[in-house]
Amino acid sequence: MTHSPLTPRRTFVVVAGLAAALLLAALIALSFGSVPVSIGNVAGSFTGSSSVPAAERTIILEIRLPRLLLAIIVGSGLSVAGLVFQALLRNPLAEPYILGISSGGTAGAILAMTLTAGPGIFIVPLASFAGSAAVMGIVYSVAYRRGKLDTYTLLLAGVMIGAFFNAFVLLVVAVVNQELRSAFLWLMGNLSGASPVSIAVVSPPVIIASLALYTQAKGFNLIATGEETAMQLGINVGTLKKWAYLLASFITGMVVSVSGVVGFVGLIIPHICRMIFGPDHRLLFPAAFLTGAIFMVMADFIARIALAPTEIPVGAVTAAIGAPLFVYLLRKA
Fold first, then answer.
1. Burial, 148: exposed, middle or buried (Cβ in 10 Å; 0-12, 13-18, 19+)?
2. Cα four-point dihedral sign 2, 5, 6, 7
3. Is 46 domain-assigned?
4. Does residue 112 belong to any structural domain of this protein?
5. Coil vs helix vs strand at 187
């Protein structure tokens, strides 16, 4: 598929269009559920209109809005992290879930919750980041042989190490702390624990890290043409890759600490955006950020209403969409 050259106008049109689509998805998510609320009452809940029933205002502002905001930050963060891993590894199959980084983050968070009595609001996210970074380091060291990084070995190592950390989480939950049964939901992805505190703690780091990665979009474009070419054009490839891996793992850890393991978002969204918008990371970063948010908002919407009043883990919805696409990409790779 050929793509038109990137211009400020094209960038504006794409970003504005995706922002409008995100707004529409947000309205749908706020309006529909086990208790339908009209769009007028949704708007009235934000303006403080006295015509909105108190029960509906509570549903919108205290239940659905925090969950919507968490879905946005989780989807955008995982999409940006997946885009970074795919760009640096030059492999469309790379993403936080497949590489085991999400599972490492979950293990770190669960361990912090188990060992710390009443952990502070920053302890769990930091422990989750430590787990994500540790898995990234292990997977990278396993796949780096004879001075080269074998991306297929890296993917296989990620799957195996991710399975190990999933088993570790189950062991901790079953043996160490019986009160952490809800952690099982983390292994399937869950946004029901959304709260203003969790959003306030996680959102700024994810947004700042995403912006920091976006500033290196030109470097990602050059690495895509080949590392030797990038170095000849003045890019310090080693430093860029080190910080990009670290920031992508940081984003993953932050997201996992509040949502659990939500798989395949980092696989699906960058791939779709690359197909639609082209390979230029100056556009791919904002496009993946917004598209990931849209996808997660709609996935959580499906999780809430598909079997209402029973709720499906959002990770099950993303896996149902992402797993077939993963097989398709694996066959093409």
1. exposed
2. negative
3. yes
4. yes
5. coil
In the chain, the amino acid numbered 64 is R
Cα–Cα distance, 43 to 46 (Å, whole number): 5
Q: What's the token pair of residue 61?
A: 């502002």
Highest mean pLDDT among 43-52, 107-116, 214-223: 214-223
Instruction: Report the chain's C-alpha Rg in angstroms.
Output: 20
Rounded Cα gap, residues 75 and 297, in angstroms:
8
Give the integer Cα–Cα distance in Å for 270 and 49: 40
**What CATH number does residue 219 fall under?**
1.10.3470.10
Is residue 5 included in any domain, yes or no?
no
DSSP 5: P
In a domain, 2, yes or no: no
pTM of the model: 0.91
The 10 Å CB-count burial string (b at 16+, else e) for 13-49 is ebeeebeebbeebbeebbbebeeebeeebbebbeeee
pLDDT digits (tens, 9 = 90+) for 68-110: 999 999 999 999 999 999 998 888 888 888 888 988 988 888 8
Contacts of 194 (CB under 8 A, 6+ apart): 66, 67, 69, 70, 258
State which amino acid sits at residue 163.
Answer: A
What distance in Å separates the CA atoms of residue 94 and residue 98, rounded to the nearest whole number? 6
The number of distinct structural domains making up the chain is: 1
From residue 276, give the alpha-carbon distance in Å to each of 96, 131, 165, 269, 280: 22, 34, 35, 11, 11
Give the range of the structural domain holding residue 67, as residue numbers without chain letter: 10-332
Instruction: Tell me the C-alpha distance between 242 and 244, whole Å.
Output: 6
